[in-house]
Amino acid sequence: MATLPRQLHLNAFLRNIGQHEAAWRLPETRIAGITDIDHYIDLARTAERGKLDAIFFADHPVLKGKTEFRPFDALDPFTLVTALSGATSQIGLVSTASTTYNDPYSLARRFATLDHVSKGRAGWNIVTTANADAAANFGYPNHPDPDHRYRRADEFLQVTQKLWDSWEDDAIVGDKDAPRFVDPDKIHRIDHVGEHFSVAGPLEVPRSPQGRPVLFQAGSSEPGKDFATKYAEAIFTAQPTLEEGRDFYTDVKARIRRHGRNPDEVHILPGLSAIIGGTEAEAHALQRQLEDLTVPDYGLEQLSSIVGFPVTHDDLDRRLDFTDRQDTGTHFIKSRYALVKRMVHNEKLTVRELLLRLSGGRGHRVFAGTPEQVADTIEEWFTTGAADGFNLIPPALPSSLSAFVDHVVPELQRRGLFRTEYTGSTLRGHLGLNRPASRFTTAASAPAC
Amino acid sequence: MATLPRQLHLNAFLRNIGQHEAAWRLPETRIAGITDIDHYIDLARTAERGKLDAIFFADHPVLKGKTEFRPFDALDPFTLVTALSGATSQIGLVSTASTTYNDPYSLARRFATLDHVSKGRAGWNIVTTANADAAANFGYPNHPDPDHRYRRADEFLQVTQKLWDSWEDDAIVGDKDAPRFVDPDKIHRIDHVGEHFSVAGPLEVPRSPQGRPVLFQAGSSEPGKDFATKYAEAIFTAQPTLEEGRDFYTDVKARIRRHGRNPDEVHILPGLSAIIGGTEAEAHALQRQLEDLTVPDYGLEQLSSIVGFPVTHDDLDRRLDFTDRQDTGTHFIKSRYALVKRMVHNEKLTVRELLLRLSGGRGHRVFAGTPEQVADTIEEWFTTGAADGFNLIPPALPSSLSAFVDHVVPELQRRGLFRTEYTGSTLRGHLGLNRPASRFTTAASAPAC
């Protein structure tokens, strides 16, 4: 039997009615989509029609910034992705959830349940929550600093993994005659006691189809990369150029190896916001249309929060000057700060130019072109050591997702880079990942593979 | 236009594969149903076919007791009910959730999202969590006492209601030309600071179809009744006899009035576990079959935890003696303790007899009979001041639910006591409840009804 060539992994990051901050102003965009389940069902089914690995939603446990000027993620992502489980049957369902503003028992219980109700399609994008304003919704005087957040996240992962392992696969006996419903020797307390958590366990959810949900992470800072390479099975990242993408890929794969893990079992998925046109001119016209609809007010606020000092209308035609600025830590995503600084330095961008670059992808790579050109850049990154696939971030929804599925996916399939049918029905199956064994299952009792 | 006679409200309480502790041992019961979404989809659609008001699931954030001898609620109820939203279109979706082991911001966000994705069918059964073992899954050295739990619950309700009100109905403007996505004057911080919670708000979820989810509660203790009559829009209760049901009904309706609320807008729904047969003999044979399949081990453990002292196999043929027992508060549900004490006293039950009574309904009323006899008892309670409807607790699933929907519902419809079609598509609509206005909406800006 011929071995399949290495296959791309494609994940659709669905941001309400579009990632581009001006997408809502396009004539065809339906404002009500922001809270309309039918809008999200349409997106999920389009992504499944395109045989994508998964759809995924961000998590913001706080109403962010200047909502006057742009939409926002208005629904709880876990509840949304759960509601979509019944409208789809094969595509992976990934929700972001915070280790800072959840407790591990409840979160483990919810994800194990999602894995059951979706029949093995659950994924968790682990975040520590970057937005400092979230603290005020949870009774904390201050947002914990990154080191504290990552220490808590590490212990959070230990606890949730133990809880997911707390039922062995064959714990339910269901012997009506004995009678014996479960074998209590195959259900384990975890009795975790640590710096942040004390959790007795076991979970009350029997072991789920995938054993554990697939773990995603997007850390690009030092502690973030360390955490991601220790736990994640797929890593999201914002890489604006091929060269930076390759550097990140090489660095992260080496770190994975240093953690004693197989780098082939951790997929690196850079963000890609593709503006697709039938011709190059059409794609660029759509990009210009989006730029023309962008107002600076929202972007200035976002940029100010990234760099940690106020950037105003008066600065629009200047270049940001970082020389007297300390890396003070007031900005909330270190990797995003470094990225912006690098963009200004390398590309000599004015604030106005920088805002246009950020408006489309919020730091993620924006590429405008024909389906063939989009496939070309995907293939180049994929075959030259910069990516195992992509986190697709459609600038406008549903139009940009449909364009990708209808025109780019067939081109990738023609090139033999992407599946033409799902070969399994679990997210682990799509990603080529093994189902983990429970730590409590002894070799003697483990079922044969 | 003729006024409809007062209508029953029927809610289906779905406990995994059956409320009766021996239901899993019936030959037809499918063990795998416990974690199988298709089992729950089947139940939800059966309940919707019967035009019931809602389905509802319990919440146990801990693996309870002797699972060797009986099934348990194995899935997170909120996630389960959310997954069922897409498989149904009209029936209400009620999840239990604890005010002791949740934070109000996250919970408000989830329920508002469920209300959006279900298009107005969300209900929250508020509990403070009675099982003391839950504390060990959340890092608490001890389970908080009832007074503390109810004080926290009260503040929890204040916070969540403010959060659900934080968006006025017309806050989303979506003016593409202005551009103006929302009107920030119609989105309100709540800035709640209290004994248990500090929450800034606003929620990031725009106001949902029902304004707020419908609130259910099952407090039967003194603080429980006080809480329920202050907040709940439907009250679950365990009442073994018509006389006790009437006393409870009269007491609770008076308390509702004392809180300045309209007693007609709070429905009292006693539990009813109906064992249905084509003839009386068939019904009693099914009841005997269930009794014969009941083993005392599980029931003895449950009973011990209710009464607060050990009850063993040696006690099976004695009557429990409460004379030297203090109401020590070690037992975890005060109202259940009082109920058991009353049953032993009034009906002179041995422990064995008591266990059989508890095995079917865990304190809820069990009634075996023909569809006509079940309809008779429902009609009697409904028309003589003991109930506004019932919380149906099918002893075996799916069989007892199907029997009720196929045989009892048509009988109730023939008698003009129950709807033959849904007249609306929201849970508030089914229950005849008004949609609450946001506290932040001024009279001038309120939309006309």
From TrEMBL, chains A, B:
Keywords for this protein = Flavoprotein, FMN, Monooxygenase, Oxidoreductase
Pfam families per the UniProt record, alphabetical: Bac_luciferase (PF00296)
Domain Luciferase-like residue range list:
32-386
UniProt binding sites for FMN: D59, T96, Y150, S220, S221
- Gene Ontology MF: a single term: monooxygenase activity
Q: Does the keyword Cytoplasm apply?
A: no
Query: Does Oxidoreductase count among this protein's keywords?
Result: yes
Which family does the similarity line name? Belongs to the NtaA/SnaA/DszA monooxygenase family.
Q: Which NCBIfam families match?
A: FMN_nitrolo
What name is this protein filed under? Answer: LLM class flavin-dependent oxidoreductase
Which species is listed as the source?
A: Mycolicibacterium diernhoferi
Output the lineage of the source organism.
Answer: Bacteria, Bacillati, Actinomycetota, Actinomycetes, Mycobacteriales
